Amino acid sequence: MASIPPPKHLVRREDGLWLVDVEEGGGTLLGFRIREVLFEAQTPYQHILVVDSFDYGKMLVLDGIVQTTVRDGFIYNEMIAHPPLLLHPDPRRVLIVGGGDLGAAREVLKYPEVESLVLVEIDAQVVEAARTHLPEIAGSGEDPRLELRTEDGIRYLETASPAQFDVILVDSSDPVGPAVGLFQPEFYAAAKRALRPGGILVVQSESPLYHRSTVESVLTALRKLFHTVRPYWSVVPTYAGGFWMFTLATDLEELEFRRTLPGNTRFATPSGIRAAFDLPPFLREWTDGLLTSPPETR
């Protein structure tokens, strides 16, 4: 009898089942040995896997690319969410575009100052898979301040009323498939229109080692729109290179901590967040060159 083929993006070897994550460009493979497949679905937008891995526990995988894991997902979620919420003068209304695993939402909702959080995720099955199989990341999702909307984040912002959010987080997957438009200048312009005066936008900006062109396009586009553009970085062990960038953009001229970091973070600390904006020399020299031109609009 022929053996049952493994699910899409998984490879069966003599020592078991492996997830093989092919990095953009095809020059690097990331491998994770898999204990069990917990969930699989092909949606109109992407292929979804939830697997239990030997080294990183349960992980969410979209189109063969690891998005988050129980072992290290809190690092990314804390570092995309806490910097803007600490720096904004009064973050009452927050929008997350993407973030269907609900990990970033869980961090945002740690702030009592946040009165409402709208999360726009294009694929409802991502949210359902996270809630069912990754409650360690998603939490209960029952906070009354959270409004979940299943729709295209690009269209949502294109039609959103102006000046309604204090903080917007773009917690997207890599710029392939449904996430391509979330890295376009037109999308950032729509995000700026939706920000209140003094609002803060944070964009996950990929790896400076593997995705230099993406980082360059993000910084260049945001610099044309905002007075202040500050890239920062963090480790994310299960992402290619283990070294990831975010970009914070705002029309605020001075960035300073306005409140106390919640006490139940596992990675983020006040000193660590400050250090994240102090880029290593090889990054600072590169990004400074991209940010020298003044913004075209305010």
UniProtKB/TrEMBL annotation:
Its EC number is 2.5.1.16. Catalyzes the irreversible transfer of a propylamine group from the amino donor S-adenosylmethioninamine (decarboxy-AdoMet) to putrescine (1,4-diaminobutane) to yield spermidine. This is Polyamine aminopropyltransferase. The active site is at 171 (proton acceptor). It is an enzyme of class 2 (transferase). It comes from Brockia lithotrophica. GO terms for molecular function: spermidine synthase activity. Pathway: Amine and polyamine biosynthesis; spermidine biosynthesis; spermidine from putrescine: step 1/1.
